[in-house]
Amino acid sequence: MHPAPSVIVFTTLSGLGFGLLFFLGLGLPAVSGMVAFVFFAIGFALACGGLMASTFHLGHPERAWRALTQWRTSWLSREGVCAVAGLMVMGLYAIGVIFLDQDWRLLGLLGSALSLATVFTTSMIYTQLKTIPRWNMKLTPALFLSFSLAGGALLAGQVTLAIVLLLAAAAVQLAYWKQGDGALAASGTDMGTATGLGERGKVRAFEPPHTGSNYLLREFVHVVGRKHSQKLRVIGFALAFVVPLVLLLLPFHHLIALMAVASHLAGVACSRWLFFAEAEHVVGLYYGKR
Amino acid sequence: MTELPSSTDRKLGLVIDLDTCVGCHACVISCKGWNTENYGAPLSDQDPYGGDPSGTFLNRVHSFEVKPTPCSSQPDPAAQLIHFPKSCLHCEDAPCVTVCPTGASYKRVEDGIVLVNEDHCIGCGLCAWSCPYGARELDQAAGVMKKCTLCVDRIYNDNLPEEDRIPSCVRTCPAGARHFGDLGDPDSAVSQLVAERGGMDLMPEMGTKPVNKYLPPRPKDEMEGDIDVLAPFLTPVAEEPKGFLGWLDKALEKI
User: Fold this and answer.
1) What CA–CA distance (Å, rounded) separates A130 from B205?
2) Which of A86, A145, A244, B115 could connect to A114 by a Cys-Cys bridge, CB 3.0–4.6 Å?
3) Is this prediction's ipTM beyond 0.85?
4) Of B28, B52, B66, the CB nearest to A201
């Protein structure tokens, strides 16, 4: 799949932002006034910034409101509904915490649930696609949720929780790569089933429909950078998990915490780039590109 | 609404004969011609006369080579070249419809045609992601999703002569490799053809239940013995050059 920068920025930032909002809604840390304002501002900036970035790849962003209508069948629509509802509820909760020194517990819990639901619905947009076996796995929602929770705990300054959740997310990441590498082969889809000619013998792409490129090849048959994927996995894994874990074990300092967050963010972005760049869409089979 | 109808009154679709298709791409051209000036936004091209041309097409013809597995009756089977037109299969269980967040994609109850309401499409591309067949393409100029309409603006068009009220690709095909009809009616000509020739689904494991069917190519005949009747007359008369040429040949060999 083409790793569109807008979608990588969106899933990375809003995943982190909704992770932070999840913990703030739980009252972790229990803050008020100016400190609460800073925490909520970071959470909203990340979540909203990500959502804004996601509209950049639309052909008609001015019609984006229509995406809230089909929640009965569409995970993308459900994501939109959860995000808008989550941000509104957390907005109300934040007003109470920041300006009125009120901790509306029920509202906070509802906001937390909606924040997590937003991350889950985002992951389901990818998980539902049978056309991309590497995404069509139970580990995909686990990957998005564990990343969001680990990043959220890190941003919320919950050191012990962050260590546990970072370890969990690292384990999910490794399992995802392991299962994902065999997903296309395990799906049973190949050039034989794609063309229906597989029972006759070995099928080979002889000539593509056009000498030039097209939308399908650009969008679904991304191959540039695959050769570096193993190196990028090591770099991404180290930045997202190893470096923050080491920094968290050092005595606390704001600068060290900032470095841990920055490293984690860069690592998650790297992992997310791989999530798209490595994903093989079955339409590539018609072009002999798998 | 992006909920799929539980059943449709008819299942209009195409039957494509892989045995007959000659790979001339006439269906591709006629499709582009008709659909760029009729239903919805035109099918745009980018850099059409430059170094990196590309454009939106609703129908593309691939070519595949199949090397049949040797068996006792055909120990050394010849490779087959199979031209493979591919467009929207108007699936009964169309994943492109249910993933649409806006309701722009829908499947018609009356005839099963899958269409896009281009005034509601936000161009997110998710329907194209969900299609295993690469049937949908986001038009780079209009920013909306384009797909085969089964020429919905021809098949019900009373302004056209009756013989033209079929999809443009079917009307154009010079080889008669494309057939149009109601695949929900077991007595229709297309259903009979599918039953007779063992029509097949593409990627059945995806669970999309395509309406369009493909007729498999017939196996090629095995040529037996000396197939070239002229070959005996064309064998070289002099195997070894003689006289001056013989001397020249030997001299050149020695250098």
Assistant:
1) 10
2) A86
3) yes
4) B66
